[in-house]
Prior knowledge:
Its EC number is 1.1.1.267. This protein is α/β, with parallel strands linked by helices.
Amino acid sequence: MERITVLGATGSIGVSTLDVLARHPERYQVYALTASTSWQQLAEQVRAHRPRFAVLSDATAAQALREALADADCDTEVLAGEQALVDVAAAGEVDTVMAAIVGAAGLLPTFAAVESGKKVLLANKEVLVMAGGLFMAEARRSGAQILPIDSEHNAIFQCLPLQKALAAGCELAELGVRKILLTASGGPFRSTPVAELAGVTPVQACAHPNWDMGQKISVDSATMMNKGLELIEACWLFNCTPDDIEVLIHPQSVIHSMVEYVDGSVLAQLGNPDMRTPIAHALGWPERVASGVPALDMVAAARLDFSAPDYERFPCLLLAEQAASMGLTAPAVLNAANEVAVAAFLQGDLAFTDIAEVNKRVLLAAQLTEPVDLDVVQLADAKARQHARRLIDAGLV
Ligand code: NAD
Ligand code: MG
């Protein structure tokens, strides 16, 4: 039995993960489930999966969960706080950790899983954007296997030769790879007139045409900051630079990304837009396990379109490319500013187009340093958040 901790169990990725796990009770056992405040949903999940631990980062919510489970026929222990998240990620009994907390909040628990040499299924892209060098170095030291859950990165992983998967750290060129083609749907505003973007609402921004996801990543998909974060994520996961990656708009989200080789071959991974496929791939790897995703109907899909991204429409994509080239703490700064700006947009305190403006101002003003450890990264993150909040609160954008 493989024992699994699901960090962010109540989110979109967490729910899909539990769906796949429930299809293979002979293979996987849930060790811990975690969330921030959603104790009612976590209570349902605890009743269904009977983990050893349930963790809420919020202490009041944890108390409510304890009371809700008092009459339940299970001996799940309820814990609270960030240290408990770290503990269930690093526990000796755990084989595999699904890292599916959204944003910088996942930094310490996800790092703890890597540090303790787990098989880490990585959905929480923000932590690689913040501290990719530290994560990859720590994985090499501890022997942790990081398997990408982000559909594009999972597709690239599947299209790369096995030796790349087994010996992370070798150069793409040594494997005959010419470039990575990172596909993007273009989100809900791919063809909205640019002049109308300033007035779009959170509801419109979260209505992704192909994927059903959490609010933060949905807004990131609408600004294409998501693709920018994914570009940085890919550089770390596949040991390459932004020059090795071409972003390609593919509105149908049937191809999840591609790898082009020097002989002219282009390998693609296709599938329905359902995160249970990459989750099942990473859970089972190197074997294959059923995911519950219906077979792709190629006749119904009928056509696949491609175009180049438009930087005027999607300035956040350009900013992420710039942050990737700037290196140092620039990606951590950009990520922090973006988390604050997206939260403000979702609360109705910031116009959609001002997300990019906040991000740009914070990135360009930041004093960048070498991210030698997590403290440096967290300091850069905190300062960038302060700056972004100042700009938004003072109405400076
Ligand atoms: P979500 O908002 O649906 O869920 C987030 C989860 O994290 C919830 O369980 C929540 O309780 C927990 N969480 C939030 N803040 C927390 C905090 N401060 N402390 C502890 N836990 C906290 O998000 P999601 O869409 O499932 O995305 C999760 C991650 O996966 C993100 O990094 C996202 O970029 C990535 N991802 C998601 C998808 C998708 O299809 N949803 C696809 C690719 C990558
Ligand atoms: Mg993705």
